[in-house]
Every structure is written in C-alpha cells, then in structure tokens.
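Sync notes, pocket subgroup
Present: LS, DG
LS reminded everyone that the earlier model was apo-only. Rerun requested with nicotinamide-adenine-dinucleotide included. Inputs:
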Amino acid sequence: MTISAQDAGAIHEAPVIRLPTGRLLIDGQLVEPLRADRTIDVINPANGRVITQIPACGPEEVDRAVQAAQRCFESREWRSMRPIDRGRLLERLALLVEEHADELAELEALDSGKLIGVTRAIDLAFTIDGLRYFAGWSSKIVGDYVTLSPLVEEAAIYRAYTERRPVGVVAGITPWNFPIGQAIQKIAPAIAFGCTVVLKPSEETSLTTLRLGELILEAGFPAGAVNIVTGLGQDVGAALVEHPLVRKIAFTGSTATGQRILAAAASSMKRVTLELGGKSPTIILADADLERAIPGAAAAIFSNSGQICTAGSRLYVEAALFDKVVEGVSDIAARLKIGSNFDPSTQIGPLVSRRQRDRVQGLVDTGIREGAVALAGGEAVEGDGWFYKPTVLGSVSRQMTVMREEIFGPVVCAARIDDGDDIAKLANDTPFGLGASIWTRNLDRAHLLAERIDAGTVWLNTHNVLDLAMPFGGSRLSGLGREFGTESMHAFTEPKAVCMRLDPRAAAR
Ligand code: NAD
C-alpha cells in the first residue's frame, strides 16, 4: 500500500510513501495478527487524518514472539554464532536502512510529524550509525582476570575470571519521539551482546518499526532473534513485562510508565533499564557568549517541537543578562516558521497527537492561571493538525506546575538567577535528573557547577548532544541505568565469575 502526498496532507513536494504491510515480525516471518478486527488508527499529526491501521496485538502474540525469541536464544545456531557474525547481521541491516533511508525518513515524518530534513539528517543517520556502532561491539565483549586472596587454604592456587553472558530475551519498549532511532537503540545492543529481542514500538508511531521488521527479514537474521509486535502499552507492553521468559526490559518512555514497569518487574527480578522523562535546566551565566547562548537555549527547547526528553525546559539566566536572553529567545520563538513538516523551510512541525497537543495546552493554561506570563506563544495554532506555538513563559516561580512537570512540548519557563542564589540548588530543584547545560566562558565556574548538578549529562556551551560512545541516562525520576558506550555491555549482559582451584602439587612435577 502507498499513500499519496495529497492524502497525507502534510507533504510539500508530493512523494508517494510506501506504507509497511502491517504484519508483525515473529519467528522469522511476517505474520498477520491473530485478530484482524483489533487495530489502531494511525493519524497524520499534520492534518488529523487517518493514514492506515496497525495491529493492536494482545498477550497471545506477545507469547508467540517471546517463545520464538527464547527458542532462538537457546538454539545451537544462535549460541554458536561467532560474535563477529552477529555484528555482520547488524552491518547488513545498516546497509539496508541506508539504502532505504529516504523512504524511512518520509514514513517517519508522516507518522510522527517530525521535520523531514531533520528526520533524514538526525534520526536516520543516528539509526545507521547505531547499527554500525553496535556491530563493532559484538566482537569486543571482555571479562576480567581476578586475583584472589584465599582465606582457608593460603597455599592453594586459585584462578578466577569473569565473563559477560547475554542476559536472555530482552523486551524493548519505545516511545514516539524518536521511533526508528529508539528501536535500534534496543535491537542493536541486544543482538551485539548475544541476546534476542521482542520490540514493541509506541502505538502512536509504529510504522518505521514495522518497516524495519521487513528489512530485518531481508538482512537474514535467524528466526526469532528479533521480533516486532505492535499494540497498546497496557496490552502488549504489560504482557511483555509480565512474561516469565523475558529476562530484561529496556524501556524508554514516561516516568509514570517506568515506575509501573519497575514495580511489575520486581517479583521476577527482571533486569530493567529505564530512560525516562526530564525537566532539564539551561543555565546562562553572566559571562556567556550570547551569540551562542541565545540560539542555543532556543534550540535546546524548540528542536523536535520540544518533544525531546533532555529538552532545556527551565531556562535560568543570571540577572545581568536575564532581559536580553529572554527577549532573544522570545524573538526566536515568535519567528520560527510553523508549517508542513515536509516543507524544507519549516522549523516547527506538529506535535505527535491531539492528546499531546491538548496536554501541552492544558499545562500552559495552568501555568498562566498560576501567574506565569506568556512572552511568546502560549496557544495552539488554529486549523488542521496538532501544531503548538513555541512558547516562552516568564514570571514563573519554583512551585508552579509548569516548573515542576515535564511538558514535552515547545514550552520554556524563564527564571532569573539573582546574586546570592545557589545555582546548583536551582538546577537540582526538580525530581528529575536527565540533562543540563551551562553556558559560560569561565572554565572554573563551568566545571565546578557541572560537578554539583545531579543529572546524567551536563553539557557545557551546547545542549542535546547525544553520542553512541557517551553513556546516556538519568538519575532520580529520570531513570535507572545507562545506555550507549561500555554501559550498554553492562546493561545487556550479566557477569559470571568462574573460579578454579589448582592442585599445588602439580607445580612440583
Ligand atoms: P509512554 O510511557 O506513554 O509510552 C512509552 C512506551 O511504553 C509506549 O510504547 C507505550 O505503549 C508503552 N507502555 C505504556 N504503558 C505501558 C505499560 N503499562 N507497560 C508496558 N509498556 C507500556 O511515553 P511516551 O508518551 O510514548 O513518550 C514520552 C516520554 O518518553 C516522555 O516522558 C519523555 O521524556 C520520555 N523519553 C525519554 C527518553 C530518555 O532517553 N530518557 C527518550 C525519549 C523519550
């Protein structure tokens, strides 16, 4: 099935977009869901029209997928596959994704409302890099040699080492803001480190993950190594979390769902990594280079229409620069071009869904009722689609809802740092701990402040820079564990210690 530009309603240059078949990837085959009548409408966020439907699976499909993943995990073929050959599978998939990058970018933009240019340059590039990055890791799994200090028989000779064993079947559960990139963030390390995986994309944006399933098949992965099931969180997600054969849950999404997953995983002690929400501060000190800091602060919050977990949603500025920065960011907000996400000149596309648009609107309204003032934006764009104007809120105070809750939209709250304020304390005045940026020319202040900020990543004179080699994750309500870099090896494997006693008499012979 294809969809034409006119049907899509959001397309600037009229490409014809090939939709995935809507079949699930289970046990090395594209299969129909068990019940054809259980579907979820896929809505184009740019015009609110239905594009197609995806299967709303239930526990039966989840069970089939998990059983297939377990069979593969236990199979001789999988267990004896050379690590470097698992890497080759990922490399083959990288080539296929690269070959289909334009098509995947268009599909992603259509489904999520993301800007087409950014989707191609960031999301797809990150996806391809991610596959290659983890392909390399598959042959670099190492344990340790351990020196023991035996207590009982001091003369005995012991040798001990650790190896890292794949944790088992992984359930990957992903959100809607970076759909294909997130899918690869779960699938690629799982395969690289010898696990098998069942992936459940967000019900809001499943199309690229379904298409990825078709490419995974083409790449020749062994049956069951990667499985993809779609559906609602409360059905498919919860069934995955509850399934006794799932040994690890790699989750990215909201804090509320993460908390539910952690509680549900406790009884079976499933391994869990949680990449959750944030309320990240952008901190501009009095000696900052404003030519970089003002556009930097604007990009920190308005990129991807604010739908980034590390979005700089609290803007703290030292008093000397406060008015200038707030004016500059508000000016950018007012000038950003809102429009079709397929128009290359558009800078702000729609939010992902009506629900998200209404949530953003509701929180801004609450903020204004509580005393905040909209210095830019503050309202939805009239007409079709789920567009929301880039918004700057002033006159905010620490206890206001807009300063405490994650909004996940293009809304920044600006607060002044007065003389004598403890800046680290302001930055940490949130239950989250995902990211933070500090803008300054003073290296001493930058590093000393970075040390005191309780966040998974602190950026200096930049914001939202993610790299596959740099550990990523959050503290407090922003999550548990880390992804990327060496941390991925720890997250997808379990250490096993092997300890052996040698016969000392053998040395004499
Ligand atoms: P969400 O928690 O609503 O959904 C995420 C996924 O969880 C979806 O696939 C959903 O179907 C599934 N789910 C829902 N209920 C479930 C349940 N009971 N059991 C198992 N799975 C369930 O989040 P969202 O609205 O899709 O995404 C936005 C959130 O994700 C924001 O809070 C954002 O900050 C966060 N996020 C975090 C990161 C990060 O790396 N820290 C990255 C992107 C997004």
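DG: The two ends are 75 Å apart (CA to CA).
LS: The pocket of nicotinamide-adenine-dinucleotide is lined by residues 173-177, 200, 202-203, 233-234, 237-238, 241, 252-254, 257, 260-261, 275-278, 309, 406, 408, 434, 474, 479 (CB under 6 Å).
Action: DG to write up.
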